[in-house]
Amino acid sequence: MANTLMEGKKRPDWVNLVLAICLFVSPWVIGFAAETAPSWNAWIVGIMLGALAVAALSAFAEWEEWANLVLGLWLIASPWLLGFVINVNAMWTNVVIGVLVAAVSLWAVWGYHHPHAHA
Questions:
Q1: In this predicted structure, what is the pLDDT of residue 6?
Q2: Cα 54-48-40 angle, rounded to 5 deg
Q3: Measured between alpha carbons, how far is 119 from 117 in angstroms, rounded to an integer?
Q4: Least confident interval from 19-28, 48-57, 75-84, 104-113
Q5: Separation between Cα atoms, residue 45 and residue 39, nearest integer Å
Q6: 83: alpha, beta or left, given left = phi > 0 and alpha = psi -120 to 50?
Q7: DSSP secondary-structure letter at 53?
Q8: With contact defined as beta carbons under 8 Å apart, do 29 and 11 qualify?
Q9: Would you tell me how many other CB atoms lie within 10 Å of the CB of residue 119?
């Protein structure tokens, strides 16, 4: 039972790791690798998300989930703040992955503060 509970607590971190990988490869897969701002944004934030996910998988800390939330919100706002909103593919990639990262991070924080909610 305890092992199942620990796996349930790590599930958001696995999801964020997959999202980090998706974000990192998105410039090549979606086709905006030639554009500097959205590509570097995806690569840098993807690495940061991946590092936080791996750190959280090894030893959970609530601050990692809050940092993921900030990165998710950054992804949502970055097309406008970095000026690549005209590239619809890059914009929607950032917005969708940002919403997913933010939601997963909030799920992890909720589970941390309400451990019996997921049982």
A1: 45
A2: 145
A3: 6
A4: 104-113
A5: 10
A6: left
A7: H
A8: no
A9: 9
pLDDT in tens, 37-94: 999 999 999 999 999 989 888 876 777 888 999 999 999 999 999 999 999 999 999 9
Structure tokens at 66: 């809050």
Give domain status of residue 41, yes or no: yes
Residue 119 within a domain:
no
Could you give the angle at which helices 62-81 and 88-113 cross, rounded to 10 degrees?
160
Count of C-beta atoms within a 10 Å radius of residue 72 = 24
- Domain containing 83 equals 2-113
Q: How many domains, in total, are found in the chain?
A: 1
Q: Is residue 118 part of a domain?
A: no
Residues in the chain: 119
